């Protein structure tokens, strides 16, 4: 229940961002009032990376009924999105919301903490906060859909035998511990930023896992040096744009041996109109 409530808080926190993009890039004005336009053509008109445009509009569709995907890959207006074009006051309201009010939210973290660092940099320079964040992520991950138990039960770990698993961005090692308890023959290397690893090493590793789990400082944007049988990338990619996700993967190539695997456990978006409205909103 706690994990579910937290996710709904995130939904409320972020659900205005699609409208901000729609206003800033004047997307509604570029969609025919009567007709349709492809995502590819619309992205070119707006100067937006096409996968990002799809994410923006599909989010707005599920939350605000703004725009509709009349057929796969094509966008049309609804009465809501058409009002942005035809009623000046509606567009003005978006402008006030995002040019006047939203800025305080967008810059709030840095101002509140009197820092020019981004969120992860700030955590890295404050070990106690970093430790608290790791604990929070462990608690948030206890929901049935993202629990480590799901990962333990739904991947054939036995095929790795007594192999080595590198847990990239593995924080305090809670996921590796869960898998190790079920598959004790495996060896785990938990990698994360130095402050996170320092905090993890101050914790107590269960006696039955000593010697089976190693903690190692590593930046996953730099070349990997551990030759493993499997590289686990759990709930990492959803925090990074595609180019950075690809960079993370490329760092593994030089050290990967024949037969090595990459296991990604992360969010997947349903195709539009294939899930309930509640599921669609939460996913997007």
TrEMBL record:
Q: Does the keyword Glycosyltransferase apply?
A: no
Q: Which InterPro entries match?
A: COMT-like, COMT_C, SAM-dependent_MTases_sf, WH-like_DNA-bd_sf
Q: Per its UniProt record, what PROSITE patterns does this chain match? A: SAM_OMT_II
Q: Does Transferase count among this protein's keywords?
A: yes
Recall the GO molecular function terms of this protein's record. Answer: O-methyltransferase activity
List, alphabetically, the Pfam families matched: Methyltransf_2
Its BP terms in the Gene Ontology are: methylation
Q: Where is the O-methyltransferase C-terminal domain?
A: 105-279
Q: Which UniProt keywords apply?
A: Methyltransferase, S-adenosyl-L-methionine, Transferase
State the name under which the record lists this protein.
Answer: O-methyltransferase C-terminal domain-containing protein
Can you name the source organism?
Ramalina farinacea
Tell me the lineage of the source organism. Answer: Eukaryota, Fungi, Dikarya, Ascomycota, Pezizomycotina
């Amino acid at each position: 229940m706690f994990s579910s409530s937290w996710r709904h808080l995130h939904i409320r926190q972020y659900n205005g961002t699609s409208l901000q993009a729609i206003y800033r890039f004047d997307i509604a004005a570029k969609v025919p009032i009567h007709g349709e336009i492809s995502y590819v053509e619309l992205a070119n008109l707006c100067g937006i990376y096409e996968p990002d445009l799809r994410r923006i509009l599909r989010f707005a569709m599920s939350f605000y009924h703004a725009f509709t995907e009349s057929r796969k890959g094509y966008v049309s207006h609804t009465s809501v999105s058409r009002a942005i074009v035809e009623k000046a006051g509606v567009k003005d309201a978006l402008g006030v919301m995002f040019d006047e009010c939203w800025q305080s939210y967008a810059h709030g973290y840095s101002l509140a903490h009197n820092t020019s660092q981004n969120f992860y940099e700030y955590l890295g320079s404050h070990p106690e906060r970093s430790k608290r964040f790791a604990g929070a992520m462990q608690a948030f991950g206890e929901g049935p859909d993202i629990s480590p138990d799901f990962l333990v039960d739904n991947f054939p770990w036995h095929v790795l035998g007594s192999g080595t698993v590198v847990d990239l961005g593995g924080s305090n090692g809670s996921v590796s511990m869960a898998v190790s308890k079920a598959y004790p023959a495996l060896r785990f290397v938990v990698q994360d930023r130095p402050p996170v690893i320092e905090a993890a090493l101050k914790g107590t590793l269960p006696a039955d896992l000593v010697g089976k789990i190693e903690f190692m400082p590593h930046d996953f944007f730099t070349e990997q040096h551990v030759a493993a049988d499997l590289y686990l990338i759990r709930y990492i990619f959803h925090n990074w744009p595609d180019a950075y996700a690809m960079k993370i993967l490329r760092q593994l190539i030089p050290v990967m041996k024949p037969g090595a695997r990459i296991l990604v456990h992360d969010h997947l978006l349903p195709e539009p109109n294939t899930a309930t409205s509640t599921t669609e909103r939460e996913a997007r």
